[in-house]
Amino acid sequence: MFKKRETRFVEILKESYSSGLLSILVDRETGVHYVHTWASTGGSGLTPLLDETGKVVVKKLE
Fold first, then answer.
1. Around Cβ 26, how many Cβ atoms within 10 Å?
2. Rounded Cα gap, residues 23 and 32, in angstroms
3. Interacting residues of 34 by C-beta distance below 8 A, sequence separation 6+
4. What is the spatial distance between Cα 33 and Cα 11, in angstroms, rounded to a whole number?
5. Reduced to 3 states, what is the DSSP secondary structure of residue 34?
6. Closest residue by Cα to residue 37 from 24, 26, 50, 54
7. Does residue 12 carry a pLDDT above 80?
8. How confident is residue 37, by pLDDT bands cut at 50, 70 and 90?
């Protein structure tokens, strides 16, 4: 009856550190990779992932 829709973002990496979490998200439509950080103190951030030359990482998932 209802068609299941694929989510737009997929998490390809998740790591914990002393006070929070770090994950890499990929936008399935654009291929842009994002770094998401979350701190146990309540802070959170999201920014595009950059390569060694400072350009945004864009690589579509297979």
1. 22
2. 14
3. 9, 24, 25, 26, 27, 46, 47, 48, 49
4. 10
5. strand
6. 24
7. yes
8. very high
